[in-house]
Design a protein that fits this description.
Blueprint lengths: L11 H17 L10 H21 L3 H18 L1
């Protein structure tokens, strides 16, 4: 039987999504201040939604619930790309 991840932190997808969100925050720090409530906010919310929704899905017990949150995370990745 294959080993299952005990924590979402063990999953490579979450690790990469978390690193991406941190990178987006660092990058958007240099954006113009007049974009703080526009583009900056949108990118940050979308990027932070990726690891957050992955964790929500990871914690769900049923496959349909997991898929729902993973799809939301995927949509946020598409939005912030």
């Amino acid at each position: 039987m294959a080993d299952k991840s005990q924590s979402f932190r063990d999953v490579l997808v979450w690790q990469k999504a978390h690193a991406y969100a941190l990178a987006v925050y660092r990058t958007t720090e240099s954006f113009p201040k007049h974009q703080l409530f526009g583009l900056t906010s949108q990118l940050r919310r979308a990027a932070s939604s990726i690891p957050s929704n992955f964790v929500e899905g990871f914690r769900k017990r049923t496959t349909p619930d997991k898929i729902r949150y993973y799809n939301i995370a995927q949509g946020s990745a598409d939005e912030s790309a």
